[in-house]
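To the team - copper (II) ion complex, inputs and output below.
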Amino acid sequence: MFHWTGLATAAAAALALAACGGDGNSSTPTAPSTDGGVGATVVITASGVSGSTPRVGLGQRIRFTNNDSRPHQLLSTPHGSHTDCPALNEIDLLSPGQSRDSGVLNVRRGCGFHDHLNPDDQRFRGQVLVGLSENDPVPPDPDY
Ligand SMILES: [Cu+2]
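Output:
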């Protein structure tokens, strides 16, 4: 005779074991996988971005708000491939009045951004300082 309750218990035990796998309680300094929320907001107006070196913690997101009367498209550097920090590409096209958050920024580095609709306009570019404190050296300018 089949014992469903026994089977369920075995399955639960297997799941619990799987959940405990990996590196256990080691203190590897990897980025947190949890969502740390929005660490900073950059406002875009006709005259440019409100801050070109916003700072967020590891595991946080950055929010861009378009207060200009025309659209702006916020993407990662470099212009063309947009591959430096793919999480920034989640902001993408912002209509006037629109706000959007990046994906979770999990790498300690400078994450360059630019307005893909105005790629050569220096007022609409900068880099997000991810997981870097005031005491850390400012990373070199990204390849815009
Ligand atoms: Cu671009």
